[in-house]
Amino acid sequence: MAALWKYLLVALLLAGALLFLFYAVRSASAARVTAAPGITGLARFPFLWDAWNETMGYAILILACLAGAWLVGQAQWGWNAVWNGESWIRMAEAIDVAPEFVVREPSQSWKANVFYGLVMGLSFGLSALFADGPWTAARGFWVSVSFGFLLWMGQSAVENYTKTVRLSVQGLEECSYFGSRRIPWEEIGGLEFQDIRAQIEKFQDWKTRRSSTLPHIDIWAVSDRRGQELLRLSAEMEPEDVFRRMREQITKRRPAHLPHST
Question: How far is the C-alpha of 57 from the C-alpha of 129, rounded, in Å?
Fold first, then answer.
């Protein structure tokens, strides 16, 4: 089903690009023949700028639709992938093995996606889309960015709402509506605690750091034998006691560098 949604979204984005191309061509034609008739020389420049500015606005929307279609087309929606030591390879179907431990993404993750998607995407996108005045390049840019962010947050909300992490004899597997990714036991090389807030604050001035309002963003990073980071698991995966026992089992099977206690 996820793969079907992928192709449908790509088709809609390509159709949107064609629609905006039609409006861009019509706007460009109007700019050439109707820009301030009877006015010559440099006096024509403001009128030509207004007409071509509308065309540029549609051009930005066309590029945004094409970029979105390419990104969605590259997404591994519907994949059941396994790590082979160098890359993710697609399996014919998921391996149905009873897991020893199962944890899920905390609800605040998808709720945050919905909140920021609605606040940032709709507030800026709708205000630019329905603003008074002629269509401009700036409006095209804000509409593209805002609705692109809204779609990204929507996809993230669905993924986090359906995400589970399972540990079985096959290894560690992350599953969601969009597919699954599995790291076999022989490829699991490490489990490391990371404080994302501390990493972000390293780039800030020390005075700003003292009064930082950033929330704590703690994760457990799973890497392979070469040290390449493959999965990031929220430190607040639920149930908490099951997640703790899962980490202990991974640590027991594959000794890892643990800056913090499990």
Answer: 11
Strands (E), the chain: 79-83, 88-90, 101-104, 164-168, 171-176, 179-183, 188-195, 218-224, 229-234
Look at residue 259 and tell me whether its pLDDT is greater than 70: no
Query: For residue range 59-76, what is the model confidence (pLDDT) as tens digits?
Result: 888 899 999 999 888 887
Mapping DSSP to helix (H, G, I), strand (E, B) and coil, where does residue 232 land?
Answer: strand
Residue with tokens 């669905």: 158
To the nearest 10°, report the CA torsion of 69, 71, 74, 79: -100
Q: Which residue has the tokens 């040290």?
A: 227
Q: What is the DSSP letter of 132?
A: S
Q: In Å, how far are 173, 190, 242, 244 from 165, measured between CA atoms?
A: 6, 16, 11, 13
Phi, psi (degrees; rounded to nearest 5) at 143: -65, -45
* Other C-beta atoms lying within 10 Å of the C-beta of residue 77: 21
